[in-house]
Batch of 2 targets.
Target 1
Amino acid sequence: MNIGILAVQGAFIEQEQMLSGLGASCFEIRQKSDLSRPMDGLVIPGGESTVQGKLLRDLGLFAPLKEKIEAGLPVFGTCAGLLLLAKKIVNDERRHFATMDITAVRNAYGRQLGSFYAKAEFDGLGIIPMTFIRAPYIESVGENVQVLSVVGGHIVAARQSSRLVTAFHPELCGDTRVHRYFLNMIETLKEAKRSEV
Ligand code: GLN
């Protein structure tokens, strides 16, 4: 399975290590020519959504990636990646890919609780460890969005068909279940496509 990892800023190396450890072939996306490689899934790492959004545009990656995501390329966005995929961000005017029907709050936990660790139920995976770093949360979701995890009354993981997001960083927790979930999701979507034909 070929996974493209957006590598313009943020915690992309940890994502690569996690997914390679699970047997995926990872490659970094830094410039437009990287998009010509076969890609079964895309990872948008944590970092700074505003910086990533700007760099994506400056590097000419924004439009082609948006097109691929809209065409159904499976994508996993963590933290800043969640913000890049959200249709609405209540406290930021900037919009990025805006392809997932969720409303997010940026830097939602304020300064004091900026970074914290939790353990909570993730739908189908059991209790998993979660590292939050100046994280967003999801305030509300559209009809076709499945809520996968809630911490302290706030949605922290969700899925809408080929799009998966977590407000936390599963790649920093030493637990592979969320990444396995993403790889299984890609397989299942592929099979569904095959049986359509
Ligand atoms: N606070 C960051 C943002 O607004 C997200 C933090 C993260 O990705 N860990 O983009």
Target 2
Amino acid sequence: MEQHTYHEPVLVGARLTDSKCSTMSSAALQPTSGDCPGGGAPHIVLLPSAGMGHLVPFTSLAIALSTGHGCDVSLVTALPTVSSAESRHIAALFAAFPAVRRLKLCLASFDASTSSEFPGADPFYVRYESLRRSAPLLLGPLLAGASASALVADIALASVAIPVARELRVPCYVFFTASITMLSFKAYFPTYLDANGAGHGIGDVDVPGVYRIPKCSVPQALHDPYNLFTRQFVANGRALTEANGLLVNAFDALEPEAVAALQGGSVVTGLPPVFAVGPLVLVNLREAGEAAKEQGNHYMAWLDRQPARSVVYVSFGSRKALARDQIGELAAGLEASGCRFLWVVKGAVVDRDDAAGLGDLLGEGFLERVEGRGLVTKSWVEQDVVLRHPAVGLFVSHCGWNSVTEAASSGVPVLAWPRFADQRVNAGVVARCGAGVWVERWSWEGEDGVVGAEEIAEKVKAAMADEKVMEKAASVREAAAAAVADGGTSYRSLAEFVRRCRDGTAASNAP
Ligand code: UDP
């Protein structure tokens, strides 16, 4: 059997069958110098859940802690990944940043049994559930073997990771990968349910000290108390007060009300410190851009040929596909807008299942008609690099939080078109700060109505010409850069988190 060094331990469950996974050697379980109250580099173990929307910010956090704050960092990777994008991203991370250690966690048979229990459920939520069920068995030995100074667990795993870490007296921080406004909603939601009775339906949710989240912006799944996502959401929301601290990939200046309300205790009492550490930037962007060109990703070369601020970048994220009729209207709308555009089209939830050709999705003749001014791809693009390209003038976005933070960092205005989950709350943040526009009546998943081509064309043209929004987006970019620069609010928050890990402060604060 393969023996793993400390640098690449693997943990497997008793029922696992993946032949690529093997057991951890006893050497792998020896404590290391990672346990460092009082000095030295803290060893921080990062535990993401699933999907690029979680993996990307965890990767950015790993890089920031390792290269910017001198930490010893391990990233837990659950295998097999749900999407191909995740496995490529993981491989790229460990190739580019060998100082970040990898802890493999193999889950194959848990996934199979969990999927059959929740037929038709979103595969990413099924993976969260697999990880949640595996945590009591697998996470303890992994943490003990790694001799971690602190665990940073994904919000989707908070309620199961915190007890395991506490048992081992390892401080457990929770990384919230969405907006601070959404964090405040999540922290308050269990109180709302307790006060209103879970069976009474969800109405507007007035988050104390923040603002009222209208019923229509509440994530769709939360209207069903038995939904898998709802159960996880509520359990994790209740667990927040048990964490040693909450990290969030956002910055104070963008969501001042939510920051003040969370820190001032008006959302719920007993929350641990909140560290707004974003927007975390993924990699050395210039290098990433060059790499994209070298790999034959023609979109960068195509962008190079377009005039400044002339291109509308269109993407609805990594994990949902628009309905076919909506794709058709969007295509017609982009065509009618007369604008140049780069559009990343998805035909299925999980990339591995996405077999439809572009011609089938977009209709006959579309690609020929827009040739030269429109580039459409089904492939992964380096979005953060695309958004920093001077040719990009507008981002038609579903408002996944990473997309919002990437738009904020690059100063590109957003035409918000949220589709599900927290995206309407995030679109509210975009509209409130003025760095984008949101047509609130545009439908999202589960609502009737397809947004028509004519209206799409009109809004795209208007947003491209909106100088006020452009100026605001530029000022948000300045604020984002200032937050993460040495001495900025997010830089200092991350440094304070590292100090606590190093000094063991969090352990002594543990509930
Ligand atoms: N992304 C990318 N290329 C793509 C599609 C997505 O780089 O072709 C990245 C995007 O930059 C972001 C993440 O995948 O960092 C998606 O996260 P987000 O929160 O925006 O949305 P989700 O996919 O979770 O809905």
